[in-house]
């Protein structure tokens, strides 16, 4: 039987995960959020705990955690939460929307989250604690590192390899066989056609504006 779930974080990303989990009839025992939970009917009726230490009220063997903190460039909180509770012995649930399409021959590591409309093709590997956000496409043979965020609508063509803590922004496109090193941020809408060095920000090309005479 599936274990009950405790959600870490109570913002927009957590609301999307809870919606998926409720549709799958999973039991949610609470949310841990130091700030007030976001205004959304999704959170109605769920117990809220205010401190990360409140997680210890739940036995490691009886629940799984869901990492509801969204990753933001230059903010490691999501990765810190994952490694902190893993080190203590808690497990993280892998959350996969019923409205995503995942090849039978793809592999997802612990704590991966695949949101509605995402497609993950054959032989892709998604590293622990990474998010494949709504409508993103991960083509065949891609290897996605740990703690990545592939934002809504981004497309990674075949055999793209991202290392740890990469953020691919909304609607960005990466052509096939590209290597993206760790801590890279690909800006929303950028088109990547060559390998990217570690700790690089890739800005999208700006449209040149000219008044028509
Ligand atoms: O130390 C903490 C902590 N710090 C902030 N421990 C715990 N347990 N929770 C923490 N939080 C919680 O993170 C706040 O209480 C708040 O509920 C949540 C942050 O919510 P916010 O709506 O600001 O962001 P988000 O993480 O849900 O979503 C971000 O990432 C998504 C992928 C946003 O950028 C979204 O737009 C994006 N879709």
UniProtKB/TrEMBL annotation:
Q: Where is the PglD N-terminal domain?
A: 5-84
Q: Per its UniProt record, what Gene3D superfamilies does this chain match?
A: 3.40.50.20, Hexapeptide repeat proteins (2.160.10.10)
**CDD domains reported for this sequence:** LbH_AT_putative
> What keywords sit in the KW lines?
Acyltransferase, Repeat, Transferase
Q: Which domain of life is it from?
A: Bacteria
Q: Which InterPro entries match?
A: AcTrfase_PglD-like, Hexapep, Hexapep_transf_CS, PglD_N, Trans_hexapeptide_repeat, Trimer_LpxA-like_sf
User: Which family is this protein grouped under?
Assistant: Belongs to the transferase hexapeptide repeat family.
PANTHER family recorded: ACETYLTRANSFERASE (PTHR43300), UDP-N-ACETYLBACILLOSAMINE N-ACETYLTRANSFERASE (PTHR43300:SF7)
What is the recorded name of this protein? Acetyltransferase
> What is the protein's species of origin?
Paraglaciecola aquimarina
Organism lineage string: Bacteria, Pseudomonadati, Pseudomonadota, Gammaproteobacteria, Alteromonadales
């Amino acid at each position: 039987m599936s274990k009950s779930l405790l959600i870490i974080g109570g913002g927009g990303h957590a609301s999307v995960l809870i919606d998926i989990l409720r549709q799958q009839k999973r039991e949610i025992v609470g949310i841990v959020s130091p700030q007030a939970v976001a205004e959304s009917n999704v959170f109605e009726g769920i117990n809220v705990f205010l401190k990360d230490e409140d997680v210890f009220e739940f036995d490691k063997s009886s629940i799984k955690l869901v990492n509801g903190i969204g990753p933001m460039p230059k903010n490691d909180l999501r990765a810190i939460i994952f490694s902190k509770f893993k080190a203590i012995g808690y497990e993280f649930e892998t959350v996969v929307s019923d409205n995503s399409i995942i090849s039978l021959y793809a592999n997802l590591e612990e704590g991966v989250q695949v949101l509605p409309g995402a497609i993950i093709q054959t032989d892709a590997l998604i590293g622990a604690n990474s998010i494949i956000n709504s409508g993103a496409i991960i083509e065949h043979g891609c290897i996605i590192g740990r703690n990545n965020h592939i934002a809504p609508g981004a497309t990674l063509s075949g055999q793209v390899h991202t290392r740890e803590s990469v953020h691919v922004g909304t609607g960005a496109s990466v052509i096939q066989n590209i290597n993206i090193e760790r801590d890279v941020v690909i800006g929303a809408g950028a088109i990547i056609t060559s390998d990217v060095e570690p700790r690089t920000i890739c800005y999208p090309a700006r449209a040149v504006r000219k008044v028509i005479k």
